[in-house]
Design a protein that fits this description.
The protein is mainly α. The protein is built from 7 helices and no strands. Helix 1 packs antiparallel against helix 2.
Length: about 170
Protein backbone atom coordinates (compact mmCIF):
# COMPACT_ATOMS: atom_id res chain seq x y z
CA UNK A 1 0.00 0.00 0.00
CA UNK A 2 2.83 2.40 0.86
CA UNK A 3 4.41 1.72 -2.57
CA UNK A 4 1.18 2.80 -4.31
CA UNK A 5 1.00 5.92 -2.16
CA UNK A 6 4.63 6.73 -3.03
CA UNK A 7 3.89 6.21 -6.72
CA UNK A 8 0.90 8.57 -6.62
CA UNK A 9 2.86 11.19 -4.68
CA UNK A 10 5.79 10.86 -7.09
CA UNK A 11 3.51 11.18 -10.14
CA UNK A 12 1.98 14.36 -8.75
CA UNK A 13 5.41 15.86 -8.08
CA UNK A 14 6.62 14.98 -11.59
CA UNK A 15 3.49 16.44 -13.15
CA UNK A 16 3.84 19.63 -11.12
CA UNK A 17 7.55 20.03 -11.96
CA UNK A 18 7.81 18.49 -15.44
CA UNK A 19 8.70 21.89 -16.91
CA UNK A 20 12.10 21.51 -15.25
CA UNK A 21 12.75 18.24 -17.07
CA UNK A 22 11.56 19.68 -20.38
CA UNK A 23 13.92 22.65 -20.09
CA UNK A 24 16.87 20.39 -19.34
CA UNK A 25 16.07 18.03 -22.20
CA UNK A 26 15.75 20.98 -24.60
CA UNK A 27 19.23 22.19 -23.62
CA UNK A 28 20.95 18.81 -23.95
CA UNK A 29 19.16 17.20 -26.93
CA UNK A 30 18.79 17.96 -30.64
CA UNK A 31 15.71 16.09 -31.70
CA UNK A 32 12.27 15.49 -30.28
CA UNK A 33 13.01 11.76 -30.05
CA UNK A 34 16.20 12.39 -28.09
CA UNK A 35 14.38 14.80 -25.77
CA UNK A 36 11.65 12.20 -25.20
CA UNK A 37 14.22 9.48 -24.47
CA UNK A 38 16.10 11.72 -22.05
CA UNK A 39 12.82 12.76 -20.39
CA UNK A 40 12.04 9.07 -19.76
CA UNK A 41 15.57 8.38 -18.53
CA UNK A 42 15.38 11.33 -16.12
CA UNK A 43 11.99 10.18 -14.80
CA UNK A 44 13.34 6.67 -14.28
CA UNK A 45 16.37 8.02 -12.42
CA UNK A 46 14.14 10.27 -10.32
CA UNK A 47 11.93 7.29 -9.43
CA UNK A 48 14.94 5.12 -8.59
CA UNK A 49 16.33 7.91 -6.38
CA UNK A 50 13.01 9.00 -4.88
CA UNK A 51 13.51 6.92 -1.74
CA UNK A 52 16.68 8.88 -0.98
CA UNK A 53 15.00 12.30 -1.21
CA UNK A 54 15.42 13.67 2.32
CA UNK A 55 13.28 16.81 2.13
CA UNK A 56 16.08 18.95 3.57
CA UNK A 57 15.86 20.84 0.28
CA UNK A 58 12.95 21.64 -2.00
CA UNK A 59 11.81 18.85 -4.29
CA UNK A 60 12.47 21.06 -7.33
CA UNK A 61 16.09 21.61 -6.23
CA UNK A 62 16.63 17.88 -5.79
CA UNK A 63 14.87 17.24 -9.10
CA UNK A 64 17.13 19.72 -10.93
CA UNK A 65 20.20 18.02 -9.51
CA UNK A 66 19.13 14.50 -10.49
CA UNK A 67 17.91 15.64 -13.92
CA UNK A 68 21.08 17.60 -14.70
CA UNK A 69 23.32 14.75 -13.56
CA UNK A 70 21.34 12.33 -15.73
CA UNK A 71 21.49 14.65 -18.74
CA UNK A 72 25.22 15.26 -18.34
CA UNK A 73 25.88 11.52 -17.95
CA UNK A 74 23.80 10.90 -21.06
CA UNK A 75 25.86 13.43 -23.04
CA UNK A 76 29.12 11.89 -21.84
CA UNK A 77 27.94 8.40 -22.80
CA UNK A 78 26.94 9.41 -26.30
CA UNK A 79 29.87 11.81 -26.81
CA UNK A 80 27.88 13.53 -29.55
CA UNK A 81 27.90 17.23 -30.21
CA UNK A 82 24.53 18.27 -28.82
CA UNK A 83 23.20 21.63 -29.86
CA UNK A 84 20.51 23.80 -28.42
CA UNK A 85 17.40 24.31 -30.54
CA UNK A 86 16.40 27.93 -30.09
CA UNK A 87 12.84 28.96 -29.43
CA UNK A 88 11.34 25.53 -28.99
CA UNK A 89 8.11 25.14 -27.09
CA UNK A 90 9.83 25.12 -23.69
CA UNK A 91 12.01 28.19 -24.13
CA UNK A 92 9.75 30.69 -25.87
CA UNK A 93 10.06 34.26 -24.81
CA UNK A 94 7.72 37.12 -25.70
CA UNK A 95 9.74 38.78 -28.43
CA UNK A 96 8.75 42.11 -29.92
CA UNK A 97 10.86 42.39 -33.04
CA UNK A 98 12.86 40.35 -35.52
CA UNK A 99 16.01 41.78 -33.91
CA UNK A 100 14.91 40.35 -30.55
CA UNK A 101 14.37 36.95 -32.16
CA UNK A 102 17.79 37.04 -33.81
CA UNK A 103 19.45 38.07 -30.55
CA UNK A 104 17.81 35.19 -28.68
CA UNK A 105 18.81 32.72 -31.41
CA UNK A 106 22.35 34.02 -31.21
CA UNK A 107 22.38 33.66 -27.43
CA UNK A 108 21.04 30.09 -27.59
CA UNK A 109 23.62 29.23 -30.24
CA UNK A 110 26.31 30.56 -27.90
CA UNK A 111 24.89 28.57 -24.97
CA UNK A 112 25.01 25.40 -27.09
CA UNK A 113 28.79 25.87 -27.41
CA UNK A 114 29.33 25.74 -23.64
CA UNK A 115 30.37 22.58 -21.83
CA UNK A 116 27.73 20.57 -19.96
CA UNK A 117 28.33 22.08 -16.52
CA UNK A 118 28.41 25.66 -17.81
CA UNK A 119 25.15 25.02 -19.71
CA UNK A 120 23.57 23.77 -16.51
CA UNK A 121 24.75 26.79 -14.51
CA UNK A 122 23.55 29.34 -17.07
CA UNK A 123 20.24 27.48 -17.43
CA UNK A 124 19.65 27.73 -13.69
CA UNK A 125 20.70 31.39 -13.64
CA UNK A 126 18.29 32.13 -16.51
CA UNK A 127 15.62 30.36 -14.46
CA UNK A 128 16.31 33.04 -11.84
CA UNK A 129 17.64 30.60 -9.26
CA UNK A 130 19.74 32.31 -6.61
CA UNK A 131 23.42 31.44 -6.16
CA UNK A 132 22.71 29.25 -3.11
CA UNK A 133 20.16 27.18 -5.06
CA UNK A 134 22.47 26.84 -8.07
CA UNK A 135 25.34 25.79 -5.80
CA UNK A 136 23.14 23.21 -4.10
CA UNK A 137 21.93 21.77 -7.41
CA UNK A 138 25.38 21.68 -9.03
CA UNK A 139 27.10 20.51 -5.86
CA UNK A 140 29.58 23.32 -5.30
CA UNK A 141 29.93 26.52 -3.30
CA UNK A 142 28.13 29.82 -3.75
CA UNK A 143 31.43 31.62 -4.37
CA UNK A 144 32.38 29.08 -7.04
CA UNK A 145 29.06 29.70 -8.80
CA UNK A 146 29.66 33.44 -8.63
CA UNK A 147 33.09 33.09 -10.26
CA UNK A 148 31.81 30.60 -12.85
CA UNK A 149 28.90 32.84 -13.84
CA UNK A 150 31.24 35.77 -14.47
CA UNK A 151 33.41 33.53 -16.67
CA UNK A 152 30.41 32.01 -18.46
CA UNK A 153 28.96 35.45 -19.22
CA UNK A 154 32.34 36.58 -20.60
CA UNK A 155 32.57 33.42 -22.68
CA UNK A 156 29.04 33.95 -24.05
CA UNK A 157 29.83 37.56 -24.87
CA UNK A 158 32.98 36.48 -26.70
CA UNK A 159 31.11 33.81 -28.69
CA UNK A 160 28.34 36.23 -29.63
CA UNK A 161 30.82 38.94 -30.65
CA UNK A 162 32.84 36.48 -32.76
CA UNK A 163 29.67 35.22 -34.43
CA UNK A 164 28.58 38.77 -35.25
CA UNK A 165 32.05 39.55 -36.69
CA UNK A 166 31.93 36.42 -38.86
CA UNK A 167 28.48 37.31 -40.18
CA UNK A 168 29.55 40.88 -41.05
Amino acid sequence: MKHQQNRKEFSKLIEKNQRIIHKITSIYCNSGDDREDLFQEICLQLWNSYGSFREDSKFSTWMYRVALNTAISNVRKKKNNFSFEPLNEYTRLPLESDDDKENVKLLYKAVSMLNSIDKAIILLWLEEKNYDEIASIIGTTKSNISVKLVRIKRKLEEIVNNTIKQES
